[in-house]
Amino acid sequence: MLADLPRTTIQVAKNQQFTLTESGIYVFEMVQAGVELQVVGFFQAVGKEKKEVQVIIHHMVAHTKATTLLKGTADDSARVSFTGRIIIDPNCPDTNSFLTERILLLSDTAQAETVPDLEIESDDVKCSHAASISRIPEEHIFYLMSRGISRKESQAMIVEGFLA
Fold first, then answer.
1. How far apart are the first and last CA of the chain?
2. Domain ranges (residues) in the chain
3. How far, rounded to the nearest angstrom, does the alpha carbon of residue 67 sit from its chain's CA centroid?
4. Which of 90, 99, 149, 161 is deepest in the core (most CB within 10 A)?
5. How far apart are CA 33 and CA 132, in angstroms?
6. Are 27 and 35 in contact (CB under 8 A)?
């Protein structure tokens, strides 16, 4: 299915920030030493929607830094899929790259997938990834409802906080 998605390649030669909101394949090529990249993505899928996102952070030179955060929610029978990959080429010391993928399921029929991946071919780097798929804990809903907030509003508040 990823093969059918639009592909965007961006060469990063200065400090940049990107916000992703659409399904697609996004390739960020770090081509200038000393640059920093921040990528954030926020996705909400409802009904039978599918949100598929692949982010590739490719460190091609030394002394670069990247932080990637993808968050999504899936409700009804929707599906959210995140594939994140960090590539650090040989001879790229002093590279820092971090990838976080978080998905919140809002119904029993919603589906989610997170696939973080690291390909490190250099020494002296800091690189990590984290991924989680979870539901809203019932005690969080109960707490808000005990303050007079409806179940629907409680869930909406929690989702808003999660995506913020």
1. 28
2. 2-136
3. 10
4. 99
5. 32
6. no
